[in-house]
Amino acid sequence: MGKFTEDRKTQENSAKNKMSASELLVHASRKSGKSVGKITRDWWRLYWGKGRLSLLEYVTWQVYDDRFSQKEKEEFVSTAVHWPLTEDSCDRTWDAATEDKFLADTILRAHGLPVPETVAVIDRSIRHFGDTPKLSTVEELRDFLTQEGNLPLFGKVLRGIGSFGVIHISGADDTHIHLKSMDAVTYQDFWDNVIGDSSYVLQRIVQNHSAIDDFCSATATVRLVVLVRENKNDVRFPLAAFSIPGGGNIADAFFWRTGNACCNVNPETGELLNIITSDGPDLVSNDIHPETGADIIGMKLPHWDRLLEIATLAARLYAPVRYQSLDIALTDEGPVIIEINTGGGFGLPQNASQKGMMTDEVRQFFRDCGSKRV
After folding, report:
1. Contact call for residues 330 and 208 (beta carbons, < 8 A)
2. Is 248 helix (H, G, I), strand (E, B) or coil?
3. What per-residue confidence (pLDDT) applies to 349?
4. Whose CA is closest to 314, among 108, 95, 103?
5. DSSP string, 92-149
6. What's the gap between Cα 290 and its chain centre?
7. Is 168 found in the same domain as 90?
């Protein structure tokens, strides 16, 4: 990945979350009114438990708070446990079918599911991409971007995660590429320092539904936690979160992109239940959208029934991946699947809900998959 892909806001927010262990313990002590020793003992039990919570996770999710019973504390699960549980529950031979964005979009589109339009791939390998133009040189990139009607475009690392390295190309002329949230760069500088050694898929911008566009600075997505329950012959969505890009951000990844927000979503109705932002290690509950003032708590996201229908079809198509996550955008024309993932980090669902995701239902699912980690 190129070295200029993270903007200044990202770097500033990363710095805010680098408190030392002693600073985190003192922070939690002050917030809770409990002694540092009591906080340390409480966290240590959870760290050595099945949830394996890091100290930062313990403080971020405010697990030290007395509103949580011991059972509820033990429902929080660390991001560090994500891949081991994914290994236990998923056929990992399917990884390329989810993690290679060009391949995933091709599979989904071939089965009638809505995905963004991929218009080109930047790639210097021997790989062929069918009818999709492949841009392997600076000259080919310049020729493509300066053709009328090809811009704007959104670029994603072919096998990227967490929106790291994404780009929004808003314009191009004979000498420079114009990037939203970044300075204009020459084609060679873009090729060497933005693209670097990575391959990128270039896609049409997905436009938000008119009901949500006014409080989003870029495409917003719904994250669904997906459980394919083979023994019950069904698909369950126990948790849902809505990621809202703000502050001029070009992607909706929560926590490390300053200005973004997330909402807990009722997975049955699509109702927004809260608005969460971050301030250093803390999650902050808001009554209104803090940037625009939009009163969105209680709002029902559009096309929710269709979203669940599309998500179920995608989940069954990828059934050997029993634990999945789906990121789905909402447009005026309907839902669009942005990504399907093998597994899915535990951070966003727990950030949004402010509760642990290892409920009895989710725990039983992983046990049914043969996991002994829960």
Report:
1. yes
2. coil
3. 96
4. 108
5. GGGHHHHHSHHHHHHHHHHTT---PPEEEEE--SS---TTS-EE-SHHHHHHHHTSTT
6. 21
7. no
CB 340, CB 314: distance < 8 Å: yes
Is residue 70 domain-shared with residue 91, that is, in the same domain?
A: no
Give which of 355, 363, 362 is closest to 264, Cα–Cα.
355
Is the CB of residue 362 less than 8 Å from the CB of residue 89? no
Q: Take residue 205 and report the two structure tokens written for it.
A: 């911008």
Q: Which two tokens stand for residue 28?
A: 């939690």
User: What's the whole-model pTM score?
Assistant: 0.94
Partners of 324 in beta bridges = 226, 342
Is there a single domain that holds both residue 243 and residue 122?
no
- Please indicate, yes or no, whether residues 45 and 152 belong to a single structural domain of this protein: no
pLDDT single digits (tens) 99-135: 999 999 999 999 999 999 999 999 999 999 999 999 9
DSSP 197-231: T--EEEEEPPPPPTTTGGG-SS--EEEEEEEEETT
Burial of 229 by CB count in 10 Å (0-12 exposed, 13-18 middle, 19+ buried)? middle
- CA 61 from chain centre, in angstroms, equals 18
> Greatest CA span in the chain, whole angstroms?
64
pLDDT tens digits, residue range 43-60? 999 999 999 999 999 999
Q: CA of 57: how far to CAs of 79, 95, 167, 282, in Å? A: 9, 27, 29, 10
Domain boundary among 178, 204, 230: 204
Domains identified in the chain, total number: 3
H or E stretch covering 317 = helix 304-317
Answer whether residue 56 is part of any domain: yes
In a domain, residue 6? The reply is no
The token duo for 143 is 């020729």
Sign, CA torsion 264/265/271/277: positive
Q: DSSP letter at 299?
A: P
Structural domain boundaries enclosing 345: 84-113+209-368
Q: Are residues 100 and 231 in the same domain?
A: yes
Q: How far apart are CA 10 and CA 298, in angstroms?
A: 30
